[in-house]
């Protein structure tokens, strides 16, 4: 019982501060010092988790766009096509709605396999249009994601574990929302932070007492050296 277990970490709601955007900087040191692979698995567009790894000083092992983009540190895999999601976004705009991120839209600017819509925009028309294109709308609590139903974070994590050569049966995942359920299913031990939504809470092996980064830091403390 000396090695650290590999980690699969979500970003929003999991590495962030309560009630605001933004990383909790206390997570950076334990992640950097972790003596096993750390996979960042997020709904955010590819550059965001890559930048997080870069600034944390860890290898870039990344599942972005809810599994649509997977980076093993050597190869990038795209598991979905943005075309249909883009068509849904255009129809939604044509019906008089907005994606809700302003003119330059850095939320979608580098997004390659799905489209994200601000939670302050009406979701029902979005769901109706997405259904016409055979796509789903996933509400992460941070954005509505219009995406292919097939790719998910868990599949992406499996691809990375396979390529990097670590054992998911020894790994730990922490997350906060429905888009983390698939990662919970592929690891040994899964934890939902206290602010997690119902889907994540029900799927996790354990629901933490602490919320956001406090919850994640408590897991890191607990599982360090536990493999
Ligand atoms: O992009 C989102 O909506 C949520 O991102 P997350 O998967 O890192 O929590
Ligand atoms: Mg999240």
From TrEMBL:
<feature type="active site" description="Nucleophile">
    <location>
        <position position="10"/>
    </location>
</feature>
<feature type="binding site">
    <location>
        <position position="176"/>
    </location>
    <ligand>
        <name>Mg(2+)</name>
    </ligand>
</feature>
<comment type="function">
    <text>Catalyzes the dephosphorylation of 2-phosphoglycolate.</text>
</comment>
<feature type="binding site">
    <location>
        <position position="12"/>
    </location>
    <ligand>
        <name>Mg(2+)</name>
    </ligand>
</feature>
<keyword id="KW-0479">Metal-binding</keyword>
<protein>
    <recommendedName>
        <fullName>Phosphoglycolate phosphatase</fullName>
        <ecNumber>3.1.3.18</ecNumber>
    </recommendedName>
</protein>
<dbReference type="InterPro" id="IPR023214">
    <property type="entry name" value="HAD_sf"/>
</dbReference>
<dbReference type="InterPro" id="IPR006379">
    <property type="entry name" value="HAD-SF_hydro_IIB"/>
</dbReference>
<dbReference type="GO" id="GO:0005829">
    <property type="term" value="C:cytosol"/>
</dbReference>
<keyword id="KW-0119">Carbohydrate metabolism</keyword>
<dbReference type="InterPro" id="IPR036412">
    <property type="entry name" value="HAD-like_sf"/>
</dbReference>
<dbReference type="GO" id="GO:0008967">
    <property type="term" value="F:phosphoglycolate phosphatase activity"/>
</dbReference>
<feature type="binding site">
    <location>
        <position position="180"/>
    </location>
    <ligand>
        <name>Mg(2+)</name>
    </ligand>
</feature>
<keyword id="KW-0378">Hydrolase</keyword>
<dbReference type="InterPro" id="IPR006382">
    <property type="entry name" value="PGPase"/>
</dbReference>
<feature type="binding site">
    <location>
        <position position="153"/>
    </location>
    <ligand>
        <name>substrate</name>
    </ligand>
</feature>
<comment type="similarity">
    <text>Belongs to the archaeal SPP-like hydrolase family.</text>
</comment>
<dbReference type="GO" id="GO:0000287">
    <property type="term" value="F:magnesium ion binding"/>
</dbReference>
<feature type="binding site">
    <location>
        <position position="10"/>
    </location>
    <ligand>
        <name>Mg(2+)</name>
    </ligand>
</feature>
<keyword id="KW-0460">Magnesium</keyword>
<dbReference type="Pfam" id="PF08282">
    <property type="entry name" value="Hydrolase_3"/>
</dbReference>
């Amino acid at each position: 019982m000396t090695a650290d277990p590999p980690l699969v970490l979500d970003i929003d709601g999991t590495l962030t501060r309560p009630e605001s955007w933004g990383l909790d900087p206390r997570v950076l040191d334990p992640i950097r010092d972790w003596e096993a692979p750390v996979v960042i698995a997020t709904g955010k567009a590819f550059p965001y988790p890559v930048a997080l790894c870069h600034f944390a000083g860890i290898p870039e092992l990344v599942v972005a766009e809810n599994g649509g983009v997977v980076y093993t540190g050597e190869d990038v895999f795209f598991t979905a096509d943005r075309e249909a999601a883009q068509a849904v976004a255009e129809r939604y705009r044509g019906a008089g709605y907005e994606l809700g991120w302003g003119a330059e839209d850095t939320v979608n600017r580098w997004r390659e396999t799905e489209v994200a819509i601000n939670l302050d925009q009406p979701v029902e028309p979005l769901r109706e249009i997405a259904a016409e294109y055979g796509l789903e709308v996933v509400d992460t609590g941070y954005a509505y994601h219009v995406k292919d139903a097939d790719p998910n974070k868990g599949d992406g994590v499996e691809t990375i574990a396979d390529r990097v050569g670590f054992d998911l049966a020894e790994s730990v995942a922490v997350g906060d929302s429905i888009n983390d359920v698939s990662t919970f299913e592929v690891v040994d031990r899964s934890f939902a932070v206290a602010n997690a939504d119902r889907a994540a809470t029900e799927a996790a092996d354990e629901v933490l007492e602490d919320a956001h980064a406090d919850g994640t830091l408590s897991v890191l403390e607990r599982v360090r050296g536990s493999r």
